[in-house]
Description:
Lipase; signal; 9 helices; single chain; Rossmann fold; Lipase_EstA/Esterase_EstB; AB_hydrolase_fold; 6 strands; lipase activity
Amino acid sequence: xxxxxxxxxxxxxxxxxxxxxxxxxxxxxxxxxxxxxxxxxxxxxxxxxxxxxxxxxxxxxxxxxxxxxxxxxxxxxxxxxxxxxxxxxxxxxxxxxxxxxxxxxxxxxxxxxxxxxxxxxxxxxxxxxxxxxxxxxxxxxxxxxxxxxxxxxxxxxxxxxxxxxxxxxxxxxxxxxxxxxxxxxxxxxxxxxxxxxxxxxxxxxxxxxxxxxxxxxxxxxxxxxxxxxxxxxxxxxxxxxxxxxxxxxxxxxxxxxxxxxxxxxxxxxxxxxxxxxxxxxxxxxxxxxxxxxxxxxxxxx
Length: 301
């Protein structure tokens, strides 16, 4: 594949996504400048029922507004809920757009997450947190666990994170980073990578199947000791491809529950982009965070 062809494709995508300028009568832009309803109450004190604050981690090109439905649902159940914007990087075309986050280097984003979690723990006096992540957010979370202080492989009792719940995470990369435009492993390096990075951001390149970043992240296993993982996938995912590549394999002293949305609710029409606002996904997240939760998963509209 010639790099010029890829560059043209990403420019077309750029135009399709509507970032060339404001459209007439456009709806208000959710730019991530305001926390989601119920989130980032720095006076919140965790309850005995839910002692671990929940930190929400958006995906590529997203921001904390992605959690405008899940955050209040968690708050209503009595959780202390927090959301952040991460990965702002003006070196790409999309990264320069207002409200567009998650384009920067994933390793640096994991450090931003670590700092945010530290702030949450200081404010709440909580020893541990739970993480809920969409798309790239799952990889940021796993990078934090493995390399940025979120877990202690030598002594899991010192882990900061108890649970990680992911929605369509690019855990093993994607062959379709460009929303349907296929890329192979070779695209993660060389001129093709440069073309993709200059428009979509370096994080898009890092999420291509076989990238150097993912090879390092997944070396030695998918999990870290002491953390419970719930990995939620949809068969309709056209961004994390193939969809089953999101699933994790449990290593020593870790628990993994891999869930198809369509197994939980037959015929569920949940897309990759729609994950954070899906009523079904929200119910599955609530169950993952609290096994005693008995809310109805299916039948929502």
